[in-house]
Amino acid sequence: MTIYASDIEGVGNISEWELKSANFEVEYGKGYFVDANGVAKTITLPDTALTPPKIGTMFVIDNHTKTAATYNLTIQAHANDGGTLSLVVEGVASQDIVIDVSATRVLITYVSAGYGWRIKVY
Fold first, then answer.
1. N or C: which end of the chain has fewer CB atoms below 10 A?
2. CATH number of the domain where residue 85 is located
3. Which domain holds residue 96?
4. Model pTM?
């Protein structure tokens, strides 16, 4: 079955989707249906030294199993990014992005080095 971006509300220009049930590293431009049943998941951004995000770079995390309130989804910086594991989210330095509301779809878009990542929750 093929799922097109036009068939999914609120995904920007995401055209490729994967189902994930374990910790994983994001590939920019993809959408992920994350199965959080039974255990919290860690989602890691790519190493910005190897794959720097550009303005408008985006990805989507969708908690289709509706369990993130119990088993949080944590998005973290890559360990090689200066060893600090810090992100800039909407202009504020942050350790992680934690999705702790069930049945949530989050569109994450890169704006700039100073502003960092913009979060849009559906």
1. N
2. 2.60.120.640
3. 23-121
4. 0.82
